[in-house]
Amino acid sequence: MDDITAQTGEGRRSRGEGRGAAARRASRSGGGAGPAMPYITRKIAPYEVLDEEGLQIIERNADTILEEIGIEFRDDAEALELWRQAGADVKGQRVHFPKGLCRELLKTAPSVFTQYARNPERSVQIGGKATVFAPNYGSPFVRDLDGNRRYATLEDFRNFVKLSYMAPSVHHSGGTVCEPVDIPVNKRHLDMVYSHIKYSDKPFMGSVTAPERAEDSVAMCKILFGDDFVENNTVLVNLINANSPMVYDETMLGAAKVYARHNQACVISPFILSGAMSPVTVAGTLTQILAEVLAGASFTQLIRPGAPVLFGTFAASISMQSGAPTFGTPEPALVSYGAAQLARRLGLPFRTGGSLCASKVPDAQAAHESANTLNMTLLAGTNFVLHAAGWLEGGLAACYEKFMIDQDQLGMMQKLAQGVDLSESGQAMDAIREVGPGAHYLGCAHTQANFQTAFYRSALADNNSFEQWEVEGRKRIEDRANALCRSWLDSYEAPPLDPAIDEALLAYIAKRKDSMPDAFT
Amino acid sequence: MDDITAQTGEGRRSRGEGRGAAARRASRSGGGAGPAMPYITRKIAPYEVLDEEGLQIIERNADTILEEIGIEFRDDAEALELWRQAGADVKGQRVHFPKGLCRELLKTAPSVFTQYARNPERSVQIGGKATVFAPNYGSPFVRDLDGNRRYATLEDFRNFVKLSYMAPSVHHSGGTVCEPVDIPVNKRHLDMVYSHIKYSDKPFMGSVTAPERAEDSVAMCKILFGDDFVENNTVLVNLINANSPMVYDETMLGAAKVYARHNQACVISPFILSGAMSPVTVAGTLTQILAEVLAGASFTQLIRPGAPVLFGTFAASISMQSGAPTFGTPEPALVSYGAAQLARRLGLPFRTGGSLCASKVPDAQAAHESANTLNMTLLAGTNFVLHAAGWLEGGLAACYEKFMIDQDQLGMMQKLAQGVDLSESGQAMDAIREVGPGAHYLGCAHTQANFQTAFYRSALADNNSFEQWEVEGRKRIEDRANALCRSWLDSYEAPPLDPAIDEALLAYIAKRKDSMPDAFT
After folding, report:
1. Those residues with Cβ within 8 angstroms of residue A293's Cβ, 6 or more apart along the chain or in another chain
2. Nearest one of A454, A387, A383 to A39, comparing CA atoms
3. E strand or H helix at B395, and its extent?
4. What's the whole-number mean pLDDT along residues B349-365?
5. Mutation choice for A interface testing from B74, B148, B274, B365 by most A CBs within 10 A
6. Which of B317, B446, B455 should we substitute to test contact with A (largest number of A Cβ atoms within 10 Å)?
7. What is the pLDDT averaged over residues A341-360?
8. Taking the CB of residue B329, how many other CB atoms lie within 10 A of it?
9. Can you give the C-alpha Rg of chain B in angstroms?
10. Residue among A275, A284, A366 whose CB faces B426 most closely
11. How many Å apart are CA A149 and CA A358, to the nearest integer?
């Protein structure tokens, strides 16, 4: 898979040895619901909302935050000591950064890297012109196929892994696709990582809720890919949230240290609800995000120079009436567009967006909010997209029907990213000459030759006449999504997994679980 | 209102005398549902999908179509004679254009103009950095507030005029906001134009279904604005569809001639379902659109040099399985982005987009398709947007609930278009210093000073907790839209209209109706 980075020519660092045993043994293809592209290579330009002057103002202000106000690294003596050694001014838990220190440290971070999947055809490029869609992350609840909203279970978790595996426009298996609340808190990460390995062959994410759970994630990947492969390549991308404003806490620092040490990728993501965790303005929010990312991302390079790290942004606003988070509104879109520009200037891969919404049901509110977020996500030139499918209710619930609707929209974005074909066939002058004024193109040779691939085909949109739609039962899109979801889950087939690896993973999990009491909080 | 064009400095031609009597007499403000901006002045850049090479390929190919294939001007001897005199090669009804002829003729067309409203505060700029949202156009059916789909009536027409009048983010009253099917075909234009004048004070559109109906539209505007004002200023914008591929028919040419002669604006719009009326490719479709617009728009300049004309594009695809039109898919988005670029290069104001969808109900399909179209419409830098609110079912039905949902989204676009505030307050460094690591911004001075205007506030999105949403009856957004729509219509108050003008208009309509038999087809 080295050609993933080679073909873009954008990688700063070279890859390690060839791919692991599991990857070599893995099956060639797995998506049950259509042909898959491993990731999007965008042929369209990113959309930008800040000019050079605006970017410089924000960068200068972020430097001021880093130097004058500082960032707190809480309850982690090792982190503070590392910063001291690097030349920062540490006062208590507050780290003040001399101008340019973070940027200097970040020079060792790759601008493009490959995250390997056990099926090499599913490995993804992260950075450059690549966009990778990953599903919903972190929901304790699900909205199930019977319309119930209830706590999520491990069965739900497996189902969402299966659906992401089958969705041709979901490139990544994600991480906590929902919280398997029926499994003890201290053990569920083992079942989650195993489910990603067992039920999918797409790349996935590790646990970040405690350093030892991060170690377990790495250990299981070593069983799958081999020890050396993991230490020299990236097989996990991991979500490290800043505790905005301007704080990194012990838990996130602990997980970040584990992953960086093992050469695994961290997505350093300020989690921002503007008005609460950041100023109520776009420029102020961008400034704080940049300062937080500069501190957190450069920290990974203190741990291991060259470890992959992403510039992450989770941007939402709050209702200034109720304090509730709001999604799909214009201000967070401007924040994300701007953050993408700042990330490109830093030379880091960028994460934002997804299909975010506050709605409790997959209605037009959910869709408008999701579509506003998703269109921005693609046009901003985002490299890694969490929450791309299934997110409902401000992330509190993973919704099966919405997953299906979202993955259809992801397919549209995949097509949009291909841009305008200006080949001779794309120009279609022969067709225009053949048809001429007043005739139609339906039967002409060019149409016949190209119609199969000409237009994105939605499996969920109803484009029939009103009368036909009535005859078919006046179904709304969520009804069609429900039926399609059931049929996918019915027809799911697991990608083959080497039985020896499977056995070793199960043995590891059993041993680890035996070593712990059950904890539910 | 001359400052509308003066302040942008982009107008090519000077305005006529001051505004008309009715406009001067009209009330200062009318929107009942919130403060209105007369139109959007975009502070964000347009998004572009074609580079210089691509644009030149398409322009060269369009010139080839114009010269070699030609465009048909059907059943209009006057049009053909005008083209002959202008130097075109006319064979039968087919007009072949020497290279550069159309572009030369278009040099007299303004790149920016003002469409005057009877309330001068509602006059809109069309072209340049302005974006004007107008409602749905042309639906024979409505989906009413009781959930019935039925033929539209004049009462529905009036209701949509009232709703557009009240919606702060709908800048224009539109034209055939629905077809008042209960009024004879040959008379309904009189009731439509009157309804726009009577129930709104925003700018509106004239009838294009027959030359004499266009003359009636102009005559009624003369009663409203005064004869001289109408002849020297633009008070009507009118939709002239090409009969794609490469045909203009008698009806549309007849209406275009009337409006251009009276200095009123024509939106020359190829109506394209790619795969049927144009090639199945984006570049081929763009080429044909450009050729059609060049021919149609330059024709208006043959009629009256300097008459305002827009580069219009209605882009959709068809399902290659059923032939049904599809909306909100990636390919028409690419077409519209590209067409906007071509229009800017021609120096013509651009029309496309709206809130298009194929869904039969205002569900997530409707919303995704509409949002995809609308985000593109704004980012393309579109100047005049038909179908911005209320469009359902491929345009066959005007939907009250969707109108309300759409107008909320238009408000979001209006905010997005303001871009990033980089003022000192926008930078918010004082707030960041005041709050510091680990605290929150809710109560800080900067937040208190700015929260009223910081974020777009949706009146329809539910951002509450799941529990609160349950207590409030588990409402979907269309339920909330239904209630809001009823409350708007209940609280509607007509803007004052000079009784003498009202009387004169009613007398004109009565006299005209008396002169015609009822026609229902």
Report:
1. A242, A268, A270, A311, A312, A313, A343, A346, A348
2. A383
3. none
4. 98
5. B365
6. B455
7. 98
8. 27
9. 23
10. A284
11. 15
- Cα distance between residue B312 and residue B292, in whole Å: 10
Residue given tokens 């398709």 in the structure block: B369
**Which structure tokens are listed for B474?**
């588990």
Given a contact cutoff of 8 angstroms between Cβ atoms, the answer to whether B115 and B134 are in contact is: no
Say how far apart CA A163 and CA B288 lie, in whole Å: 41
Which residue, chain included where needed, has tokens 């609800």? A273
pLDDT digits (tens, 9 = 90+) for B248-279: 999 999 999 999 999 999 999 999 999 999 99
The two structure tokens encoding residue B363: 């569900």
Distance CA B142, CA B362 (A): 12
Q: Is B310 exposed, middle or buried (0-12, 13-18, 19+ CB in 10 A)?
A: buried
Cβ(B387)–Cβ(B355) under 8 Å? yes
pLDDT tens string B397-431 = 999 999 999 999 999 999 999 999 999 999 999 99
Chain mean position to CA B217: 18
Q: How far is CA B137 from CA A92, A499, B180, B204, in A?
A: 65, 62, 12, 11
Amino acid at B256: A
Q: How far is CA A516 from the centre of its chain?
A: 31
A141 is written with which tokens? 């609840």
Enclosing H/E stretch for A248? strand A247-248
Domains of chain A in sequence order: 33-419+456-520 (3.20.20.480)
* A vs B: CB pairs below 8 A: 398
Q: Which helix (H) or strand (E) holds A117?
A: none
Residue in B closest to A282 by C-alpha? B420
**What are the tokens at A501?**
């690896």
Check if the interface score ipTM surpasses 0.85: yes
Residues whose CB falls within 8 Å of the CB of residue B346, separated by 6 or more in sequence, listed in order: B103, B106, B293, B294, B297, B311
- Enclosing H/E stretch for A464: none
